[in-house]
Amino acid sequence: MRAGALLLALAGLLSSAPTVAQPAPPAARPAQAYSASVANDWFSLSLQIIQQTPGFSPPVAARALGYLGLVLYESVVPGMPEHHSLAGQLNELSSLPWAQPDEPLHWPTVANAALATMNRMMFPHASAENKARIDLLERNMALKYGQDFDPAALTPEISNRSETFGRLMAMAIMTWARTDGGHEAWGPLRRDQARYVPPGGPGQWSATPPAFAPALLPRWGDNRPFVLRSAKECPAPPPPPYSEEAGSEFHRNAREVYDISNRATQEQRQFALYWADDPGKTPTPAGHWAFIANDLLKQRRASLAEAAQTLALLNMAMSDAFVAGWATKYSLNVLRPVTYVQLVFDSAWVPTLMDTPPFPEYPSGHSVQSSAAARVLAQVFGGQTRFTDNTHNDRGWGPRSFDSFQAAADEAARSRLYAGIHFGFGVEGGKVQGRCVADKVLALKLRR
User: Fold this and answer.
1) What is the topology classification, in CATH, of domain 201-442?
2) What is the model's pTM?
């Protein structure tokens, strides 16, 4: 009965809530007045859960982070008087719950409840230990950050109202998320679809050694993006025509992969391993950039409002980048370097640093996603911002410093060539597509 009543209340809010934001009540402190600590802690835990939960391949992880960033922003945007909701701008999202102007809310409490609820729904298959961590973090947030949860100002009425609003916001966004085509994409909801059979022919992708695994998420490019009108709105430039003729552009690119793999420098090998960001071992490529952003927000003592804007834009851009990249991958079905090299140069060759991922080559997903992430972060923090990447410190691989976000993204993209799993044209084409995705996301109107 309680669940039914809550859903009825949510339905009423969704049907009647205005799409135009209303200003925060004068009695409420704005979200800008609070630290980003709630957001920092929740995203740190979300990255841990992504790493430790089966099924969170890079596209799936990016999607989860996209919704977590959005629910953070929408939960506190009523407390950002110069900003408004993204309802009406994102695909098929016409309205969301909105705060009543005469009922003050406490924004850290709202964000805490929203992110706790969203983590539970986004990671239903998380381990028992991680589910307990979600409960513990939600319960202890007020004790951990007393400066943001002042008991003298946070009355039981405001606290209860804030928790309810945060949970309703998470439920509303999750209801929308379940219709995007990516919800449980690897699970029971997709078992009725015909098995994907890759097209045959010269230059076409086929399963690669050593595992010869089936294609990963071949229909991911059909998912509804957050911002792009469709995955085709940001195409990658055409790859060179397939050719096995010596001197052709395709042949030269394949020879480059083969030669670098056989004579890779220690630095090139380090780049390849540093940016591999394998699922199950790391929080994936999107998680790597989310960690960088979260770390910078901590270092700069950002406000809750600043964190909400940054994490929403960054993570939606990375999610849309994977949708666009995957659509291109499976529409062109370009073969991987290992297949070409074995056909033309060396039948016994395989990349020595890592196995080739089980999906088509063009474009490089790392290039698309990293270029999108770097462009968003450059807009937020400044294009020439020097930063230190601490993502892999606990693995003994850092810290590493970069002169700019673009420099890091270029290294991440190039690392896939050094690893022997992408052609140079796949790296460069992905950069073009990623920058386009970022520009579409950055064109959202957050301010009034």
Assistant:
1) Vanadium-containing Chloroperoxidase; domain 2 (1.10.606)
2) 0.93
